[in-house]
Design brief:
Enzyme class: hydrolase
Radius of gyration: 25 Å
Strand content: under 5%
EC number: 3.6.1.9
Helix content: 55-70%
Keywords: Hydrolase
Structural class: mainly alpha
Protein name: Nucleoside triphosphate pyrophosphohydrolase
Order of helices and strands: HHHHHHHHHHHH
Number of strands: 0
Largest sheet: none
Distance between the termini: 53 Å
Number of helices: 12
Organism: Thioclava litoralis
Oligomer: single chain
Shape: globular
CATH superfamily of one domain: MazG-like
CATH architecture of one domain: Orthogonal Bundle
CATH topology of one domain: Helix Hairpins
């Protein structure tokens, strides 16, 4: 068992380095096969991965709500996920947290030659983003020579949220010239896909309807990309707006002695318009 006098685990020093070492020690103890926590011991990469995604979304949620008092704890939860994966890898003899930190440190230095190298720093943020993508492409090309060559889209992570993955796939394809040059062409494609969805709904089955709906979503992501918008962020904002306006409807109905299921669409739609008129966004 861990001693309550352990200077790493129980000594709450203010230095960031100490706190990081403390987290590593805590996770090492939790995964100890003889004295650790049974649940933590049983976990592997696959079982922890969903929690990693969940914690990343909770970080994004805190930022979306400007909940700055909650953000340290949410970022801590996300940091725990990194340490958890690193400890699982160490237990298997694959790598450890030092390898993780070395990899990201080296990557950040290599991808910022205008800060850590000799390149001119006098660039716009847009140019720096373009240069970042060029460096990533060069790294992929080098990796492909060392290992089995990969396609343009092969390393876009499957586990990303669908909107985010669609955006990354489109950006990757655009880098090799597979892209519309005029936003009008994107808008025309949206009209085309909308018509195909209407036709599928009228004439085809559920599978074809789902396919056409997916095509429409995909091209809507492309429109966002051409407008320099992040579709995931835009949809989160729309979700939040819907939540706030529906809360207005519920509150107004409550004052009338009703719940939504005791109302009807006409009444709730009128209250929705009232929420809009009241400036609820």
């Amino acid at each position: 068992m861990t001693s309550p006098d352990d200077p790493i685990i129980f000594d709450d020093q203010p230095e960031a380095g100490h706190q990081f070492q403390r987290l590593l020690a805590i996770m090492s103890n939790l995964r100890n096969p003889d004295t650790g926590c049974p649940w933590d011991i049983e976990q592997d990469f696959g079982t922890i991965a969903p929690y990693t995604l969940e914690e990343a979304h909770e970080v994004a949620d805190a930022i979306e709500r400007a909940a700055w008092d909650e953000l340290p704890a949410e970022l801590g939860d996300l940091a725990l996920q990194v340490v958890f994966h690193a400890q699982i890898a160490k237990d298997r003899g694959l790598f450890d947290v030092t390898d993780v930190l070395r990899a990201i440190n080296n990557k950040m230095v290599h991808r910022h030659p205008h800060v850590f190298g000799t390149e001119n720093r006098d660039k716009t943020a847009q140019q720096q983003s373009a240069d970042w993508e060029k460096i990533k492409a060069a790294e992929r090309a080098t990796k492909g020579k060392r290992e089995t060559p990969t396609g343009v889209l092969d390393d876009v992570a499957l586990a990303l949220p669908a909107l985010t993955r669609a955006l990354k796939l489109q950006k990757r394809a655009a880098r090799v010239g597979f892209d519309w040059t005029d936003i009008g062409d994107v808008l025309a494609k949206i009209s085309e896909e909308s018509e195909e969805l209407v036709e599928a709904r009228a004439m085809l089955g559920a599978d074809e309807i789902a396919e056409e709906y997916g095509d429409l979503l995909f091209v809507m992501v492309n429109l966002g990309r051409h407008l320099d918008l992040d579709p995931e962020a835009c949809l989160r904002a729309a979700n939040s707006k819907f939540t706030r306006r529906f809360a207005y409807i519920e509150d107004a109905l409550r004052k009338r002695g009703k719940t939504p299921d005791q109302s009807d669409l006409e009444e709730m739609d009128a209250l929705w318009n009232a929420a809009k008129a009241a400036g609820i966004k």
